[in-house]
Amino acid sequence: MRIGIDLGGTKIEGITLADGGAITHRHRVETPKSYDATIEAIAGVVRGLEEAAGERGTIGIGIPGTVVAATGLVKNSNSVCLNGQPLHRDLEARLGRPVRLMNDANCFALSEAADGAAAGAAIVFGVILGTGVGGGVVVEGKALIGANQISGEWGHNPLPWPSIEEIPGPPCYCGKRGCIETWLSGPGLVHDHAAVTGRELTTRAIVAAAAAGDADARATMARYHDRLARGLASVINIVDPDVVVLGGGMSNIAGLAEAASAGLPRWVFSNTVATRVVPNVHGDSSGVRGAAWLWPLGWRAA
Questions:
Q1: Do the two domains 2-106+285-292 and 120-280 of this chain adopt the same fold?
Q2: Which residue from 5, 182, 243, 246 puts its CA 20 to 30 A from 49's CA?
Q3: Residue range 128-157: average pLDDT?
Q4: Looking at residue 19, what is its pLDDT?
Q5: What angle do CA 20, 21, 23 make, to 5 degrees?
Q6: Alpha-carbon distance 280 to 131, whole Å?
C-alpha cells in the first residue's frame, strides 16, 4: 500500500493509493503553525490512514520548498517554519521507516503527466496557484530536479514585462519584491484588488463579484489573467512544454486556462503557440497522488 501526503500551507492531506491509481482512503487536517506540531500532524494522518486500511504503507510526501541534498535541510518553503529544518530526517525518525520527499509542484506535475490532463505529453509544466506559486517540469515521465533542486520554480522570478505601476512590486517572503508569487497567489490577488480599490475582499468574493458584473472585480481579474499569461509565456519561451497544467486553489476559477491561453500570443516568442494550457484532471488530490507514486509499484513498507 502506498500513502501520499500533501503538506500544504493550510491543510495536510493524506491518501492511500491502490496499485491501479484509485484513492482508497483519505484524511485531512489543518496545517499547524509550528514545525514540531507539523511533524506530529503528519504522523497523525499516517496513523489514521493505516488504521483505516489495516496495513502499513510506504510514505511519499509533497512539500512546499525542497530538501537540500548536501545538508538535508529544507529551503525555499513559503511555510517558513520548515526552512532550515531537517524535515526528512525528523519524519523518518518519527514514522519509523524510510520516507520520500519531493517538491509539491513536482508531485502535482507527475500526477497530471501520468494519467491526468497531460497524459502522453512529452514535456509538461505543472503550475501551482494557491497560497504560494510553484511549478514542476516533467520530461518523458520523469520530474526534473536540477542542480540546485529548484527546477520549475517560476514563482520567484520577477513578473515579466512589468508596467510602471507594477514596479517594484509587492514584497515577497523571499526578501525580494515583485516575484510572480506576489501577483498570482491567492493572497496576491487579494492584495492587488485592495491596492487598486481600497476594498479587501477574499479571493472567492472577488471572483464572484467579477462573475456578477462588478467593474472593479472584473478589472482585477483582467489584470490577473494578463499577469498569468506573461508569467507562463516566459516559461514557454525557455522550456517550450507541450502542455501547461494549472493546479492549486486558484486554478478552480472558471475560464482561467482559456483566459491565460488567449493572452499567450502577445508574449510568446513564436508566430504560433501550440502549447496547451489546461485545468488539471485530479483536482486538489493531484499533488497527493503524485506523492504516493514516489514509491515504485509493488514496494512494501517493512
A1: yes
A2: 246
A3: 92
A4: 81
A5: 120
A6: 17
Measured distance CA(216)–CA(231) in Å, rounded? 23
CB 78 within 8 Å of CB 184: no
Q: How many CB atoms lie within 10 A of CB 94?
A: 15
| Structure-block grid coordinates of residue 85 | 529544518
Q: Looking at the domain covering 120-280, what would its CATH class be?
A: alpha beta
User: How far are the Cα atoms of 77, 139, 283, 302 from residue 294, in angstroms, in the given order?
Assistant: 20, 16, 19, 17
Rounded Cα gap, residues 141 and 122, in angstroms: 7
Closest CA to 135 of 115, 117, 110, 154: 154
Domain boundaries, the chain: 2-106+285-292, 120-280
**Reported pTM:** 0.86
244-268 tens-digit pLDDT: 999 989 999 999 999 999 999 999 9
Does pLDDT of 280 surpass 70?
yes
Cβ neighbors of 183 (< 8 A, separation 6 or more) are 159, 166, 169, 170, 192, 224, 227, 231
Report residue 157 as a C-alpha cell.
522570478
Give the pLDDT score at 246: 97
pLDDT at res. 22: 87
Of the pLDDT bands very low, low, confident and very high (cuts 50, 70, 90), residue 149 is: confident
Q: How far apart are CA 128 and CA 108, in angstroms?
A: 8
User: What is 2-106+285-292's CATH topology?
Assistant: Nucleotidyltransferase; domain 5 (3.30.420)
